[in-house]
Specification:
- It is a single chain.
- By secondary structure, this protein is an alpha+beta fold.
- Helices cover about 35% and strands about 15% of the residues.
- The chain contains 11 helices and 12 strands.
- It has helices at about 5-15, 25-35, 70-75, 140-150, 160-170, 170-175, 195-210, 215-220, 255-260, 270-275, 285-305, and strands at about 40-45, 50-55, 80-85, 95-100, 100-105, 115-120, 120, 135, 225, 240, 245, 250.
- It starts with 5 loop residues before the first helix and ends in an 11-residue tail after the last helix.
Length: about 325
């Protein structure tokens, strides 16, 4: 890239015009000046659409806004994080997602932009304390642990608390009750009314987290056979009678309408994923991946409707 003329690079990679936070000379200088620090990192681009990014975290160059203070916690060690938003302009309060890698700014909210809250803070080179820290306010975390202490399950750890939060954000009663508030501010999490309620909601959050991170054991068999003769190229899309048509002759069969219409992060992933691949031929792995998306969306809807809770004062 550094040896090609700027016009050739822009044409090859469909680069946009320079803007306030990204300019071609900055990106080129970053590549030249930090050749030993750049790494290729996985990134959540959109729900269920993981890609790769050339990321150094040390300057606003190749990446216009690297936010190393947050994203570095995914580059330096294993992590999970809650992706949400301060506000959204969509009619459905669905701007919640879980990631296990850094993410693009609009991954979990299509109308504004997302914020990412990592569960763990990993020390960087400047930190004297090399201990991994849990990213919860300590007093609230201890209070929630005390409220959730159970004779059978014990005291929840940080992952189980994370799953409780994730379960709540997918509870239909919570979304309905706080619908207007969720349009203007970050979500507030209610205290559990009983320890049993905490562990019920946390268990649902576990199932949703594993599904949304696309863990194979959580997904299981994803049917929806890919049918028809053709070149697998994504063209004009339509959903009709349980079939997701990707062109005039090929389709995914036996698809429930809820999978096609389901929203996560302000997007309809079953539609968005295909639209982002228009003009491309789906590979064998692409077909399998899309079948998994369809299964995840239908299972998410099913699990959401099993989450029951009373709503108390928010934490």
């Amino acid at each position: 890239m550094v040896n090609l003329p700027e016009e050739a690079v822009r044409a090859k990679y469909s680069l946009p015009d320079d803007v306030r936070d990204w300019q071609y000379p900055w990106a080129l200088a970053d590549l030249i000046d930090h050749q030993n620090t750049h790494t290729v990192q996985p990134i959540s681009y959109r729900p269920f659409d993981n890609r790769y990014i050339y990321y150094s975290g040390c300057s606003r160059g190749f990446v216009g806004w690297p936010v190393e203070k947050v994203m570095g916690n995914f580059a330096r060690g294993k992590n999970i994080g809650l992706a949400t938003a301060r506000s959204n302009k969509n009619p459905v309060p669905d701007h919640f997602f879980v990631v296990d890698r850094m993410m693009e700014t609009k991954c979990a909210e299509s109308s504004t932009q997302s914020a990412l809250f990592p569960l763990y803070i990993h020390p960087d080179e400047q930190d004297l304390d090399k201990t991994r820290r849990v990213n919860f306010e300590s007093k609230l975390y201890k209070k929630l642990q005390k409220a959730a202490k159970h004779p059978e399950h014990g005291t929840p750890d940080e992952v189980q608390v994370f799953d409780y939060i994730y379960g709540i954000l997918h509870c239909p009663a919570y979304r309905e009750t706080y619908a207007e508030f969720l349009k203007i501010d970050f979500p507030r999490i209610p205290w559990p009314t009983t320890p049993d309620e905490f562990w019920h909601v946390s268990a649902k959050g576990v199932a949703l987290r594993k599904l949304h991170l696309m863990e194979p054991a959580a997904i299981g068999q994803a049917h929806y056979p890919f049918t028809g003769e053709g070149d697998n190229e994504v063209g004009k899309l339509r959903f009709e009678d349980g079939r997701v048509w990707i062109n005039d002759s090929q389709y995914f069969a036996d698809v429930p309408a809820v999978s096609w219409d389901f929203y996560i992060g302000g997007y309809q992933p079953a539609q968005k994923w295909l639209k982002d691949r228009k003009g491309r031929a789906l590979s064998f792995d692409d077909v399998k991946h899309y079948q998994k998306i369809l299964k995840i969306l239908s299972e998410t809807d099913r699990i959401m409707h099993t989450i029951t809770m009373g709503l108390t004062e928010s934490a």
